[in-house]
């Protein structure tokens, strides 16, 4: 069966997973626009080890991801840590991890906190399909009241979805709440790899290359045309194509038009600091308006001793192109807001992905494409496996799904 030639566009987790599950059966070539594989799961070197370019962790229910980690002999690297949360309000970090901390939070009434707590407890009971047609704003105001929406959810939606915040579906929001409801005393139970997710990407890449497949980095797909027996990609003919990139961008290259999907970009700044500015908190959402929506204290989650420096992320989302001068805006605001001197910042870098993922607005479910349309297989963030909440688990599921479909269709 090695005479079947498959092109995979994009080397994020979905593309690498598809290649991994097909590697010994077919000739596979992956086209990646960046200089290294991994997509939004790529990593960069720090003083000690690697840290992800975009913050990541996983959950106990991510069975496909955990199975893949074990298959790649990385089980010993897997660890379960606790992630604490809070809000930055009026220049202060307000912890919201434990019940006493939530009770003390001064920006909601006790009754509002009770309604929010009940929503969290019931999160897994809602009918996601019905919530696809309801906006998150309308849903929260109905279930918890306008006070909870304005004080707690509106800043989250604004920072995550910007101009689309009033159109995001309740299905997306409630799924995020449900998956993050595994909270014990001291924080949420979250998974990580001791040497970072660089281990996962490196292992996948090695397996794929060792099987005889090819990965072209610094090589974006530039032109796609239909051939008599398949598709030409960058002038080379393939029997099959697996697309993992934004369907709009894929269509612009010459691929089929499978519908309009509004994607958002992500700008993620990583900094090395001399001191902790989050009072030990892992995830701090910004209630005050800032050029970033959250500050993630990586070394308040992963042990500080592993890096010998405090590492934080500043997370920002945008539509279209990133705002001009975004790196300087984020850095200047962060230094001022958290009273940091220049010599307390050891280093900083920013990573920008213009197509980080689709915005799950109301009615999105009906737009989800099939896994195979007009001879093209689809396994990106827009796929069914990543709805209503995109994740590493969903990316692996999408890659494995199309791999299974191809194996079944071409088994003879």
UniProtKB/TrEMBL annotation:
InterPro entries recorded: Amino_oxidase, FAD/NAD-bd_sf, Zeta_carotene_desat/Oxidored
Gene Ontology MF annotations: oxidoreductase activity
Lineage: superkingdom: Archaea
All copies of domain Amine oxidase, residue ranges: 13-404
Gene3D superfamilies per UniProt: FAD/NAD(P)-binding domain
Database matches in PANTHER family: PROTOPORPHYRINOGEN OXIDASE
Record-linked NCBIfam families: PRK07233.1
Name of the molecule in the record: Amine oxidase
Protein species of origin: Methanolacinia petrolearia (strain DSM 11571 / OCM 486 / SEBR 4847) (Methanoplanus petrolearius)
